[in-house]
Each structure stands twice: as C-alpha cells, then as structure tokens.
Specification:
The chain is α+β, with helices and mostly antiparallel strands. It is 30% helix and 18% strand. The strands form two sheets. Strands 1, 2, 3, 4, 5, 6 and 7 form a seven-stranded mixed β-sheet that branches. Helix 2 runs antiparallel to helix 4 and helix 7 packs antiparallel against helix 8. The protein is globular. About 2% of the residues have low confidence.
Length: 271
C-alpha cells in the first residue's frame, strides 16, 4: 500500500495509548542497583527494533506514549550509548557484566525483538538467556517477586483504557501494583511518587488540567531517573481510509475508540 502514492495518501497514521518496555525487577540483584538499570536503558538500540517491526512504531523514551496528556515533549531520555552503559555497569561493580534471564511472549514478533534486546545486552557484557513462553506464563512470572529478572512486555504491554496519565501509573508502576499477581513487574514502589500521584489525581478542575499534566510529567521524569523500565517503542496505528468515507482523519485512529470512532464517521455517497 505504502508504495502506491494514491493509496498511501489515504493512510491515516496515529499513536496508540501504548508503550512497549523492558521491566527490570528492582528487588532482584543486580537490578536493585539503579546504575545497572540505567545501563540497560543506554544499551538498547531502539531504532533497530523499530525497523524490525517495519516502522510500525516510534522509539520511546518515557513510560507515557506521545498521544497521552502529561507526555513530556522536552524529556530527552537515555541516549543509545554502549560505552557509557559499560562504564555504568563497571561503576555498579559489574565490569565483566553478569548473567540473567529475559522473559518474552512466544508469539511473533516478540521472540525476534527479545533476540535483538539480547544482542544489545551482550554488547555491554550482560548475558541474558531468553525464556520464550506463553502469555499466561510470562504474566505469572512477572507477578511473582522472585519470578522474572527482566521481561519484554510486547504482546502483553499496557494499552491504556482511557487517555489519562494516571492509567499508566497505578497498575504498572505504583506500589499497589507491586503485589503477587500484579502487573508492576518491575516491583517498583516509590512511596514519595505514590503520594505525588495521589496529589496529581486529586486535581479535578478542568481549568487546572495543564497543572495536573505538569505534575504527572514530573512523576514520570523521576521514574525514568530511577529506571525500573527501559521503554522501547510506542506502537502506531495505520488505517486505510476509503475515498467514500467522510469525517476528520483523527477519527480513524482515535486511540480511545478502537478501531475507529464509528459514531462520527460517515459515507459521503449515500443517496
């Protein structure tokens, strides 16, 4: 489709409320050391992984996707820097790296992505064996505090139910999710951020929405400093819009009304 200019012109592209990420179990050595987690963030070649999935995503540098209120446009994130990653590992007491396990769901393209992550980690001395399992088994390992050192979230990654930054915090990064059977697979629990999240959530006046978004941006910036995740990409959606169809383009990639905002699109040639 994208090679045909006429058809390409009818493709509408939009962001999903989705981030694909690698979790690191912050309670499990050596991932209890923030420098190790920051090193992993610098080791991942996100552009290469995006190319592997035919550019159906954009590289991510923070937990929130770009289409989400509170996304920090000014945030630069961690650069892809193998030398700096190696130096951080050495500072953390692992000059020769270490061995670990990376859990991933066994449906395509996730094993291929896990292999790319494995190669990137090997380049800084981290030897990760891939545990490629059925979805339920990966989720079970993530919800067990001693279950999974690292997880590639693809195929199971969080897609927000509604476009609010709180939806990306509580279940997957807040203390409430760091429980047996929970979805906070990094087992990350920062009581200070939990308090700030509750404060941000208590701002309900629509006139103060910009303040609320700034509060959430600051929370996610701090999370990235603590680095319980290495965000990898944000999936994009592509919809081929027929020439007969009317309604604004964004209705065809509305992140809340998936696959299409049917209430507001229409056909132009109905008699």
């Amino acid at each position: 489709v994208m090679n045909d200019p006429e058809q390409k012109a009818r493709v509408v592209v939009g962001g999903q409320l989705h981030t694909g990420y690698i979790t690191m179990n912050t309670t499990m050595p050596p991932f209890d050391n923030v420098k190790v987690r920051q090193a992993v963030n610098m080791a991942i070649n996100k552009d290469r992984i995006v190319q592997m999935i035919n550019n159906r995503a954009v590289p991510a540098n923070q937990p929130l996707p770009p289409s989400m209120p509170g996304y920090d446009k000014a945030f630069k994130g961690y650069p892809y820097d193998v030398a700096k990653a190696k130096a951080l590992l050495a500072e953390a007491g692992h000059p020769d790296g270490f061995e670990t396990q990376l859990f991933a769901m066994n449906t395509d393209p996730n094993p291929r992505i896990a292999q790319a992550i494995q190669q990137d980690l090997a380049a800084i001395g981290i030897k990760a064996s891939i545990q490629s399992l059925a979805q339920a088994n990966v989720i079970a390992a993530g919800g067990d505090k001693s279950g999974a050192p690292m997880i590639w979230s693809g195929g199971m990654a969080w897609i927000a139910d509604f476009p609010d930054p709180s939806n990306f915090y509580g279940p997957i990064l807040g203390c409430a999710g760091a429980v047996p059977g929970g979805w906070n697979w990094a087992w990350y629990c920062n009581k200070d951020l939990d308090a700030k999240a509750a404060e941000a959530d208590s701002v309900v006046d629509p006139a103060k929405s910009a303040d609320r978004e700034k509060m959430w941006s600051a929370i996610y910036d701090k999370i990235m400093e603590d680095a319980p995740w290495a965000p990898v990409f944000n999936e994009q959606r592509f919809t081929l819009k027929s020439a007969r169809m009317g309604g604004a383009d964004n209705l065809y990639v509305d992140p809340v009304h998936i696959p299409i905002n049917y209430d507001n699109v229409y056909v132009k040639d109905v008699q």
